[in-house]
Amino acid sequence: MPHSTRPDLTIAILIPCYNEEQTIGDVVRRFRETLPAATVYVYDNNSRDLTALKARSAGAIVIREARQGKGNVVRRMFADIDADIYLMADGDGTYAPEDTPLLINTLITERCDMVVGTRRGVTADAGRSGHAFGNRIFNSLYKRLFGRDFTDIFSGYRAFTRRFVKSFPAVSGGFEIETEMSVHASQLKLPVAEILLDYGRRPEGSSSKLSTVRDGAKILLMFAMLMKETQPFRFFGAIAAVLLVASLILMAPVLVEYFETGLVPRMPTWVLSIGLLLLSVLMAMTGLILDSVSRGRAEQKRIFYLSLPTFGAGKPDAIIGASRRDVA
Question: Which GO terms describe its molecular function (predicted)?
């Protein structure tokens, strides 16, 4: 069922793809049927099958990105494409193109910069038990570290305004790109929204490109890196606290023995404990200094974000008809 759009707003549908020849043709056709006025871009990330041919035959503009990894593809897409509204989805058919109007309507009517289509039931069964467990752990960890803005930080079904896309630095190279998007929105306190949507399963013969252990480790490292960049006092303060505790544990018996006998027979232990204490102080001071730097960077990013125009002029109205899929 097609939906009408306001002619002064351009919509770009961005689909990063790697070896999705079984599904990409149908995904592109359904997006074009749902939003005929939108332009569908498929970025082929070195596929070894007929993904590019199937996407082009279905009516998509196909562009190749040589750097392997979803983050590299998203960075290229956001740099290349100029539009008022961006819709990002996967090419594996797990996200329903018929839900696109609902995401875009929410983006406009709620005046958000990003709307995330959260996946119904993904933590119960994400295809593999390892994926489901990782989803629960990382979503809980995100809430503790960066705030409670999101309940599904790994969803690949998202709608963006132009100013979000053009202000997003996109430094990650792989599947951790969605985490980086979420932290960017949380750090700048951007208006965001979530919509609970059905999450489909891959067709028979199609396999996930996500590795539970390898990509889970990359995401964990991304958490640490983003925490260091956005909350340096908390990051280095935690390291300082660990070093301080280790120093006190090593120092305590040496001090007890010194007060009892007036001697320090375990000099190497004493030197090590003092070294750890100095490192602890150094980490705390590093955190304090970098916290001021981080605040300045966040202010600059916020000012740059505000300097970019959002879609249209004046107060936007809903431009897309309601989705034919009910949302709980």
Answer: transferase activity
